[in-house]
Amino acid sequence: AYVTRVGEGPLPTELKDETGEYIRKKGAEFGTTTGRPRRVGWLDIPALRYACRINGISGLAITKLDVLAGLEKVKMCTSYSIGKKTTSEVPSSCELMEQCRPVYKELKGWQEFEAGKAEEIARKGFDALPKELKDYVAEVSKLSGAPAYLISIGPGREETIILKDVFAK
Description:
By secondary structure, the chain is α/β, with parallel strands linked by helices. Helix content is 31%, strand content 25%.
């Protein structure tokens, strides 16, 4: 549902504000061994689309959607601005990637689930999700070119909704 990075290097959608801190804390985005905070950012659609294309990805597992719950607005990067140009493709070098400024699409956020409700909603399936959350998943699928096969709305296995069972015979 969002991106993380450990260490140096370009992360065009990096959030260095209170929203980033909110996502980092709620998503427990800290190194397991070191405890160092991971860098977090809004979902980067050009990078996701590129990863899907070069790896032959046919479907997505969109996890940690619960981490974004409670935010009034959620964003996703749909393209990059590099100087006076705009591109929806990942640049060919780290140097160019470091110059990228994200161009965002903003969507309405969704409320947090009451304690214990995520499991109940997951049992009911995708249609039981808030409209705003369904809209987010649909937009990620549309813009990335890969449908969502699985989504998680909480940290537990029982808080997962399988939209397409790729292991079914």
